[in-house]
């Protein structure tokens, strides 16, 4: 049984149909890559799944409650001048389920510390958001998603403009989340990341969607089977000794 | 020495009108600065000014219908403020114009309408009173109304605090949770209107914004944390209120401008000497060394 299914879906933006006859099931605990050129309708589909865009026809069956759906857009309109620390940002992940009125208590703070540990940003807990690098900010935002205990996670190019270490950390966190049953949909452009991360792929082109597997896509692109993923180069200064 | 301090700080408040003025301005000082901090954080510092003009026609209409009755004038003020905020919001939504341009147009219309109404129905003394207030003429009814409105504002800010924070920081997160950020925004503007209405009796419609914005913009030079900003802004507003009233008593100055000017002095001094972003801070080229500061 899947928590998220598309049934003959038609979506439009500004009176123009962007996607039609979209069918399919997003497997629970699987990472689905959403692939397509700019304007192919990736963001439109994400908005519809988040419940921010009403379909023209067809329907989206999603029995995950709204407070357990999380979305990390690529260009988040985040006000970085706002005086908020990393820990406070992560704590806002609790309030969709915890309510806007109740204060935070001990277990929340403990959970936030665990989340920051997992993402390797414990030392940044009290750093203002405006002073973070792109990768650190992305990890903090992932932290909010973890606090939210999202069951459906939508990510738009999570690896754009972030450092290698952040890519590693976020990849591992996404893998762990999927292993715990979270349905993850991630917009990707990079074939290497597709190979490393995704279990299946939904390719959007010419207003239609086609389901595929990362292996098939990479084979078509390269003309040969999936390459061995490159070893990660350690980014550190050489040991002086 | 004690006698001197007593004469300077306590004797003025033996008078009933000074006591009421003090309580009214302290109540406003608790409610206005948090709103100012959020307005500032949302890049809406001038919206407070616009809203102050927006309440004017309602106040004037209340004055024409019921004479100098604060409840009626306040009711009129709240209604016209909400109407203008709603109109500006819907015009910007319908036409796609930015909300600030719609707001600017409506507040000018409101200002003209308000001044016209008071001039037609009253005297220039009444106009001065509405525009600039008279904190020393606050009676018990006015005091109850001001304290009641201020308490309501503080309680509502506490209730919607987290929603306000999230809406400032990341409106998309709020939308994703199925909460329309317009709702939070509207309620927030409603509180601003309510606060300005509470303030117009004491400081006048035009200067009521001062107690909201000046402490908030001043606090920016002293703290980088939201709690710090709000706490410092409230303390500054309280200090400006007490100091302004004392100045006005001892030097026979009008009380409203004295309070706001004192807050203004605080702003200028902070801009020069504050801990963050001030002129002094910009010239202080120091940084904590890597190994003693937080790792990062």
Structure description:
Chain A is an alpha/beta fold and 241 residues long. Chain A folds into two domains: 1-64 and 151-165 and 181-231, P-loop containing nucleotide triphosphate hydrolases (Rossmann fold, 3-Layer(aba) Sandwich), CATH 3.40.50; 80-150, no CATH class. Chain A has eight helices and nine strands. Chain A has helices at 42-49, 86-91, 95-98, 106-119, 134-147, 164-179, 191-197, 214-222; strands at residues 4-13, 16-26, 31-36, 57-62, 69-72, 152-156, 183-187, 200-205, 208-212. Chain A has a six-stranded mixed beta sheet with strand order 5-6-7-3-8-9, with helices on both faces. A three-stranded antiparallel beta sheet of chain A has the order 2-1-4, with helices on one face. In chain A, helix 4 packs across helix 5 (134-147). Chain A is globular and about 45 Å long. Chain A starts with a strand and ends in a 19-residue tail after the last helix. The model of chain A is unreliable at 226-236 (pLDDT under 50). Chain B is an all-alpha fold. Chain B has a single domain, classed as ABC transporter involved in vitamin B12 uptake, BtuC, CATH 1.10.3470. Chain B has 13 helices and no strands. In chain B, helix 3 (47-54) crosses helix 10. The longest helix of chain B has 39 residues, at 181-219. Chain B is globular and about 55 Å long. Classes of the chains: A alpha/beta (241), B mainly alpha (296).
The CATH architecture classification of the largest domain in chain A is 3-Layer(aba) Sandwich
Rg result of chain A: 19 Å
Helix content of chain B: over 70%
How widely separated are the two ends of chain A? Answer: 57 Å
* Mean of residue pLDDT values of chain A: 84
- Backbone shape of chain A: globular
Classify the beta-strand content of chain B into a percent band: under 5%
**CA radius of gyration of chain B:** 20 Å
What CATH first level of chain B would be assigned?
A: Mainly Alpha
Number of domains of chain B: 1
The CATH topology of chain B corresponds to: ABC transporter involved in vitamin B12 uptake, BtuC
How many strand elements of chain A? 9
Structural class of chain B: mainly alpha
Our count of helices of chain A gives 8
What is the assembly state of the chains in this entry? Answer: heterodimer
Task: Choose one word for the global shape of chain B.
Answer: globular
From the N-terminal CA to the C-terminal CA of chain B, the straight-line distance is 53 Å
